[in-house]
Specification:
Organism: Bosea lathyri
Protein name: L-ascorbate metabolism protein UlaG, beta-lactamase superfamily
InterPro entries: RibonucZ/Hydroxyglut_hydro
Distance between the termini: 13 Å
Number of strands: 16
Shape: globular
Number of domains: 1
Largest sheet: 8 strands, mixed
CATH architecture: 4-Layer Sandwich
Keywords: Signal
């Protein structure tokens, strides 16, 4: 991925200051997950996934495809892909694709026309924040807007989104290309989070210290890192957070999760990927 000039270390501090100075206009009245609620085009790479759904009621399957893309599968056979792009894709066409515009590795210029719902995390018309709340089969998906650093060096208000996936009473939040700390309005809009998928690179997205604070505020029982460009940035994050949460490293990129089987205390689960 080509590094934009606006992401150079000398500019990051200025952009971060601008982001923190102006609050995001995320919708704070969004109903959250509640306990009672049941550029250069590169060849597309596809993860090697051959498993059938075979999920019991209340379960969800997550597969780390790579970068910021996860495949989320429901017992009813609905499939969603996060930060769907033209570089790394799941082998199967998802029913729902969420996207963010921070970089071309987080969105697609040519989404598969068979996708039933393509949900950009920004409003392509520029009229304001994206607003998505859809239900397809046994999966509900909604977004919470966030700000990003624009390529011109300013703040792009509501330029990205975090997406929440609700499968029965299980709530999964994908933080996308998050660039700033979460405010109370974001937390109210997200609602209860059982599983959080979060970036840990610490430079293109929010710095690692800030990401630790985000995770503390969410209090999700399962925390799965993404967007770490190899092992060094991931290991730095794990070293920074080792006194806060236990870490489980899995040998495969797929995990099956159920609300009833969540760990007793918040746990970081590392899936193979990049």
């Amino acid at each position: 991925m080509r590094v934009s000039k606006m992401l150079l270390p000398s500019a990051l501090a200025l952009f971060a200051a601008a982001l923190l100075a102006v609050p995001s206009r995320a919708q704070s009245d969004e109903p959250g997950c509640r306990p009672e609620m049941a550029g250069l085009m590169l060849p597309i790479q596809r993860a090697n996934l051959t498993h059938p759904v075979n999920l019991a009621k209340g379960e969800a399957r997550l597969t780390f495809v790579g970068h910021a893309t996860f495949l989320i599968e429901t017992p009813g056979g609905i499939k969603a892909a996060t930060d769907y792009n033209d570089y790394v894709r799941p082998p199967e066409t998802p029913d729902i694709a969420t996207m963010n515009k921070a970089h071309s590795t987080h969105n697609s210029r040519n989404p598969d026309p068979a996708i039933k719902q393509v949900l950009p995390g920004w409003d392509p018309t520029g009229a304001g924040a994206a607003k998505h709340e859809i239900t397809l089969g046994d999966l509900r998906v909604r977004n919470v807007p966030t700000n990003i650093r624009s390529y011109s060096g300013s703040t792009d208000f509501d330029g990205n989104s975090m997406f929440v996936f609700e499968i029965g009473d299980l709530c999964i939040a994908h933080l996308g290309h998050l660039h700033h700390p979460l405010e109370p309005g974001h937390l109210r809009a997200l609602g209860r989070v059982d599983v959080v998928l979060f970036p840990v690179d610490g430079s293109y997205t929010l710095d690692q210290e800030g990401m630790v604070e985000v995770l503390k505020s969410l209090q999700a029982k399962v925390m799965i890192p993404m967007h770490f460009f190899g092992g060094s940035s991931l290991n730095r994050f794990l070293a920074r957070s080792q006194d806060l949460w236990p870490v489980e490293r899995r040998a495969t990129s797929t995990i099956t999760i159920a609300k009833s089987a969540l760990p007793a205390r918040p746990t970081i689960i590392v899936l193979p990927g990049n």
